[in-house]
Amino acid sequence: QRAGSSSTSSGSDPKGKEKGKEKEKEDEEPESMRAAKAAAQAQHMWDLAVPEKHWQLTNPLIPLLLVGIVGMQYMISTGQTASVAKQELEKEEIQRIRAERKSRREAEAEIAEASEASAVALAAAPAKPSAVR
Q: What per-residue confidence (pLDDT) applies to 20?
């Protein structure tokens, strides 16, 4: 029974036989043919990745590409007004910070001058005799 069942199972599976024959053909195929098939497949993948190689002016993507370029250029040219406004705000902020620093330095200089003047005044004043008890 086993021998009969194995012969019937292999006889009823024609796909299995075809796969075995394909493997034998691949094994018999010379290395150069396999390399040529691999190169053809690689070229096909490259053509898919780089479609503009085969583009012509009649390609339907050309108008889409032109619309995209014009749109991006418009966005760039109108976006500069926003960047100019941002630069002006940054310049105003820098001027405000510089004014704050200048006023702080002037205040520190006035405090230093006042402390020097008081030190000179104390040094120039005659020493008062201290009360002795």
A: 64
